[in-house]
Amino acid sequence: MCGIAGEFRYDGGAARVGAVLAMAQVLEPRGPDGWGVVGHGPLALAHQRLEIIDLTETGSQPMVDAELGLTAVFNGCIYNYPELREELGREGYRFFSTSDTEVIIKAYHRWGQRCVEHFKGMFAFAIADRTTGRLVLGRDRLGIKPLYTASVSGALRFASSLPALLAPGGVDTSIDTVALHHYMSFHAVVPAPRTILAGVRKLPPAVVRTVEPDGSSSDWTYWQPEFVRGTTEHSAGEWAEIARESLRTAVQRRMVADVPVGVLLSGGIDSSIVVAMLAEEGQKDLKTFSIGFESEAGEAGDEFDYSDLVAKTYGTDHVKIDVPKADTDDALPGAVAAMSEPMTSHDVVAFYLLSREVSRSIKVVQSGQGADEVLGGYDWYPPIARVGREGAVDAYHRAFFDRPSSAIADLVAPEYLVDHDPSLDLVRDHFARRGADEAVDAALRLDTTVMLVDDPVKRVDNMTMAWGLEARVPFLDHDFVDTMGACPPEYKMADGGKGVLKAAARGLLPDEIIDRKKGYFPVPAIRQLSGPVLERVTAALTDPAARRRGLFRTDAVATMLDDPNSGRTNLGANALWQVALLEMWLQAHGID
């Protein structure tokens, strides 16, 4: 819901409203229903609005509460805002709107930065305090909503997307070599606070940052999942019931809106159980949406058999979107431009095209992202379980990393290499942290708090918000994550992965959905490069901008272009696509 931007000056000058408006213009697709800007002294804030809650003008942003001396911009949704509004009302607060934005303002006045502990939702916000002169930035626990920052001469800027920060100029756009290492090794994930650009950072998930009038700042991490056993033991059946009830609560929470809420239905168990629970709650005329693509090189491009079965079982108002190959080719530049950071997953284009179609009839959807990370759905968890604590880091490295650090030098030009392995260091540090009773618990915690945030969740946010569509993810309800973090890994890995979810789904979903092979959003035209997509890849890697930058070894690029589909990463992704996507992204955003 929406896009936010701002500039906070600490050099004694006035904030540049024009710079903030330039950022807001880039964010317009995230909030096409209206905009607003305020500027006074060292601070300027802008907002692009997607109308979901309080559709009247009283819900517009930036929201100024003159009585409390607070001004806020906010992206996301506080699902428990009605309950918080009642609680704050009992304490004497008066409301002039019915929006969750105003609840954030009152909650901050009442509890200070600890207000975030009261929020159940997804959010990135900025609150300016007239009395103290401070700026407070906050991000939700699982990083569902993004917030990027950049230090420019005498000021801090922030925005909902990285490209927005580049619009006014003045940002260091050189390549962050540590981030590049992560991109080439850690499955294209660049963990917060880094981005691929040296001059842009992102506020980490579950962090509140307080910026003082002199520009100094302090961070508070207010939530860290433990993934440890509780004091009470439960059987496999009891854990299935716990999962079912906790997920049902999460799904119910995400129906709060003043507009209809639909579901992105892939036909897998994750999105299908969301549909089943909504149907169980009596949702009528629930809109569901599925997408499929033309096959390529013998690789199927849809899973309509499964999504059709779910839609028929629950009588949803189902829309099936069949995308011809030409549409995939044409959509690629738009999808790349919509990325806040380079994202190599081939299903980015799928989400981009799906969101385009869905946004024509609805503004809010629920989606199934997060189940694999929280509930043990990936195939690298069993090998980690077999080796235990002693060999867990090496097992994770072998199973998940795209390539070892030593192999990066075969692709990346020498001047962009680092003399250590920051990706492996990051994994070691995470596995060594307190908590996480077993090795698999540590892997699940790492994937939930790092990989999930900067791959699947970011992908869904970027592609849906490119079309003014808000995606809500019940598997990333923090109460659900905390609850299921205590579930023993053997119950999660059972039955081929996500065993506890499959057990929870029995009786809710058809067995064909529960027992099917794990699926994904297949986009064969990206996995098997040919035709116009391959032409775009070739053009990007041979463009004068790519040659000037010299990120990659020319011999390695030439070899991959000669045989575009044989080079694969450790997890089977197209290696040429990974290299080309970074150049395509840099060129799309005018970075030389």
TrEMBL record:
It is an enzyme of class 6 (ligase). The keyword Amino-acid biosynthesis applies. SUPFAM superfamilies: Adenine nucleotide alpha hydrolases-like (SSF52402), N-terminal nucleophile aminohydrolases (Ntn hydrolases) (SSF56235). This is asparagine synthase (glutamine-hydrolyzing). Pathway: Amino-acid biosynthesis; L-asparagine biosynthesis; L-asparagine from L-aspartate (L-Gln route): step 1/1. Belongs to the asparagine synthetase family. Residues 2-214 form the Glutamine amidotransferase type-2 domain. It catalyses: L-aspartate + L-glutamine + ATP + H2O = L-asparagine + L-glutamate + AMP + diphosphate + H(+). Keywords: Amino-acid biosynthesis, Asparagine biosynthesis, ATP-binding, Glutamine amidotransferase, Nucleotide-binding. The keyword Nucleotide-binding applies. Its EC number is 6.3.5.4. InterPro entries: Asn_synth_AEB, Asn_synthase, ASN_synthetase/amidase, AsnB_N, Asparagine_synth, GATase_2_dom, Ntn_hydrolases_N, Rossmann-like_a/b/a_fold. It holds the Pfam family Asn_synthase. It comes from Actinomycetospora aurantiaca.
